[in-house]
Write a structure and sequence with these properties.
Chains A, B: This is Zn-dependent hydrolase. The structure is a homodimer of 399-residue chains. Chain A is of the alpha+beta class and 399 residues long. Chain A contains twelve helices and 17 strands.
Chain lengths: 399, 399
């Protein structure tokens, strides 16, 4: 079993935490000075471990192992959400450093902008598998302040650099260690999660058109209240979805906007952002069929017209059984009975890398399930156990 | 029966429609140049009819009959909503001119800012009954552009003018003719509505506090989804209110705001603007008790905390039975079987005047129920019938 220096691993994590510190978390939005400082810090660490570091035209940092293969690719992302936690992304990158330091034949990567500060989405990992066109980059903007991606890249000193492409033939596969961002492990009293797949998000916009009217002059019978039709539809979804969902499906109404949204005006229009997630396409299709049936039923029942628009319907990324076997074997050796398999409800770079090579993920518990918030945290003994399991699994996968 | 010159009445309405014309409607926000022009136009008309016109420190135009009493007060308001209809308010004021022209002993008033461009609310009629303090005026601003009320009054040339107070002892009562702003009369095939009372609006803010979380990492069982709790509460209201409401009660959810309102974030907070209206206090109290019970039930059932805040709980203004009798007697004489009694779902200046003297309202049909929109309209024969009924009712009330 490889000797992982967990003290050096934790020291690295804390050093990285100091870059862009925000309360007990970090604020390192993509291409910010703090983000670029963290990328330079990473390149130094990779060099110290004997890897050849590069940064590419979108900011992805890559450390190439100089020796013979077979190789594994290990990593995640290094920028953070705004005023967010210290482990999301950083953990998987620093775990890669730890494996390289232990002498394992791994390349380490920190894919740019997994957090989606720019609207291209998963810029680094999608670019690295050849999915991002120049035109897509030309059109992309920062979701918060509207800065064009090209401008932000130039300001960060990355203009003109080539974009790296992953050579799938070089690798046995990709390993990404990450915090769970939920409470499944914590509530089960477990310390490790072997990810079976990354759920696909099927995101919808539901628009309901009624008739804007005066809330006093218009009787209940006369109304075509788009807001009320929206409430009834969402209540019907709330009732129907538990009967058709999978064991770990989730569904979420993130936004309900009534137009004009004034106290004494019957809403003439309602817009709903609704999504569901699962790792199984048949389950996703069952939920879609239910949603469509409920919208048809709404249109039969209500004096408002509901229409459904698919914003995105991705394919779930299933983890590689061989790599999962290596992870669960290592977990059972180092922490017998202390792990379980589970899907990832959140998206990760691994879902993109999985399109060109075997990929797998290892979760460690999130205290209180908190993430995307500066209070995000994980016990140090769980972080240390996780990186040791990742190292042992890498050794098994490379054997 | 008084001889109402309906041709002159319609001519006045069309002249006033030309001031601030917007498509087939008008745009005369309070204290705008168009609004002030319409107030000057009104003062000239009042003078021609033998009344002594004044304008007061908030812009209310008042025409005083020079002769012996008993008197009636007749009027409404003259400013419009933005880009709105030609009859809302204007009809009741021009009807007052018509009654004065016919020699009836009426004072005519156009109360300022019934439409609430300034946040003091019903500025003119509330000021005229002594309800608006100087401090309230100091604090009031335009709801659209934030201009302080004092500044707007000064810019309109009204600074320093005294505010008029109605002398309730002078009047047998107040009559306000208005468009219905609904389709009750149109659908019933009727031409006149005798208003029984002006509904009170009981306006509430419901705040639901949950826990903002990642829509992927958080299982359905773990969630404290404030948006879902809001949907369930509103669906319960939708089910319960028809069982406790009055015949003409209305209830409206004007706004649902989920925080932060992003597609992949479980809302941590929901804010709902909910109101109900009725002319009967026992009915209003029954609806309030139901709302409070549903919120208690939500707090037992959900992992989110709902709280209820009363924004305003006004008292319904009941119309005076004597004046209603005069109106219905006149209606039955001039249009047998063509009228009905009905509540007003919208607020009117009459609800304030009713606090100090008997008051009543006469409705004429709105084509398609449309108001607060430039397409607002009423058939000219209905307008003419309405003013004749108002004149005949005034004569009865003064007898």
């Amino acid at each position: 079993m490889p000797e992982i220096d967990t003290q050096a691993f934790l020291r690295d994590l804390h050093e990285l935490r100091a870059i862009g510190r925000y309360r007990t978390g970090v604020h390192r939005p993509t291409y910010s000075p703090q983000d670029m400082e963290s990328r330079r810090w990473l390149m130094q660490r990779l060099e110290e471990c004997g890897l050849a570091p590069t940064i590419d035209g979108v900011g992805t940092v890559f450390g190439r192992h100089p020796g013979e293969g077979p190789h594994l690719l290990v990593g995640s992302h290094i920028e953070s959400q705004n005023e967010a936690g210290w482990l999301d992304g950083a953990l998987g990158v620093v775990a890669g450093i730890a494996l390289a330091r232990a002498g394992l034949p791994v390349d380490v990567c920190a894919f740019a902008d997994e957090e989606g500060h720019f609207d291209v989405g998963f810029l680094g990992s999608r670019s690295a598998i050849g999915e991002v066109t120049e035109a897509e980059m030309d059109a992309s903007r920062n979701r918060t302040d509207g800065t064009p991606l090209r401008e932000a890249i130039a300001a960060a000193g990355l203009a003109g650099l080539p974009r790296m492409r992953l050579d799938s033939g070089r690798y046995r596969g990709f390993l990404e260690m990450h915090i769970e961002q939920g409470t499944v492990l914590e509530e089960a009293g477990l310390r490790l999660g072997i990810v079976t797949g990354i759920v696909a998000i099927w995101q919808w916009r539901i628009v309901i058109e009624g008739q804007q009217d005066h809330a006093g002059g218009t009787t209940m019978a006369e109304r075509r209240d788009a807001g009320l039709a929206a409430v009834r539809l969402l209540a019907a979804i709330d009732e129907a979805f538990p009967k058709v969902c999978g064991e770990r499906s989730t569904w979420t109404t993130g936004r309900i906007a009534l137009d004009p949204g004034a106290p004494s005006i019957i809403p003439g229009r309602a817009e709903i952002l609704f999504q569901f997630r699962d790792v199984s396409v048949p389950v996703l299709e069952r939920m879609e069929a239910t949603l469509r049936a409920l919208i048809r039923e709404s249109n039969r029942r209500e004096r408002c017209k509901a229409t459904l628009e698919a914003i995105s319907c991705a394919t779930p990324a299933l983890c590689d059984p061989g790599l999962m076997g290596a992870l669960s074997g290592a977990a059972e050796t180092l922490c017998p009975g202390g792990w379980q398999t589970m899907p990832s409800g959140a998206g990760h770079d691994a879902q993109n890398v999985a399109k060109i090579m075997p990929a797998a993920m290892l979760f460690v518990p999130s205290i209180g399930g908190i993430s995307h918030h500066w209070t995000e945290d994980t016990k140090e003994e769980d972080l240390a156990l996780g990186v040791r399991v990742l190292g042992a699994a890498a050794e098994r996968a490379l054997a």
